[in-house]
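Lab notebook: predicted structure, single chain.

Context: the supervisor wants predicted structures on file for every construct in the current expression panel, including those that have not yet been purified. This is the next one on the list. No modifications to the sequence; it matches the entry in the shared construct table.
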Amino acid sequence: MVEVIINGHAGRLEGRYHQAKRPDAPVALILHPHPQYGGTMNNKVAYALFTCFKDLGFSVLRFNFRGVGRSQGVFEDGPGELSDATIALDWLQAQNPDARQCWIAGYSFGAWIGLQLLMRRPDINNFIAVSPPANEKDFGFLAPCPTSGLIVQGGMDEIGNPKMVEELAYRLNNQRHVDVDFAMIEDGDHMYNGHLVDLYKVVGNYVISALSKKAPAKKRRGRRKKSEIAEQMLLEGKSSEDTEDDYTDDEEYDDEDYNDDDMNDDFDDEDDEK
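Prediction complete. Output recorded below exactly as produced.
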């Protein structure tokens, strides 16, 4: 993993990038949660998504939206962040001209931005939306949703509305020509405290299934129980009893603006993050 600086419309964008060994490896862009509630590219959910795609052989980029960390600019609550995501995706694809697929994955506010980017970029093949803020943002622009994907939600989310996210997934899944899977991690809160491994496995198994181009599964229109998640182990060495340290520390994030204590604060003190 290396630090990268990308030239954005509002100035530089700070990112972390993993380059896969295969030149035709798929690529994934990770979008972090709300900047005004402590969201950064080092958020533990965003980092878990980054790690999952990296472990599955993707070239992966995560970055800070404008005004976050060492990224320049000022928060714009949508338009500016969408511009940042567009620039970041352009950079990622330029580094990987032979990539066979392009994925977008976002968490909370990042999921809202990612799904807007999906509507503007037909080159995106699939999406992951974790805890999209269906109770705060209008997702009517997904009409129709241009590609299949996965929506993940915590059943004990204290910030978002699990029922509204489930209804969003249901509406999208009823559109023609796309299959929008839905996974409810029943005991997960908004930050997925104690359930990052579950999140990692749910996302990883979905990505594996999509990449293998299996025959499409029957659409899920109900909740996915945690017992179902446990039956699909992505990593042989992982279990629900494992610690979640892998998703709360980025050892290579070591610059003048942030240190390990700062990062732990980012991960542990985002109770109000959206």
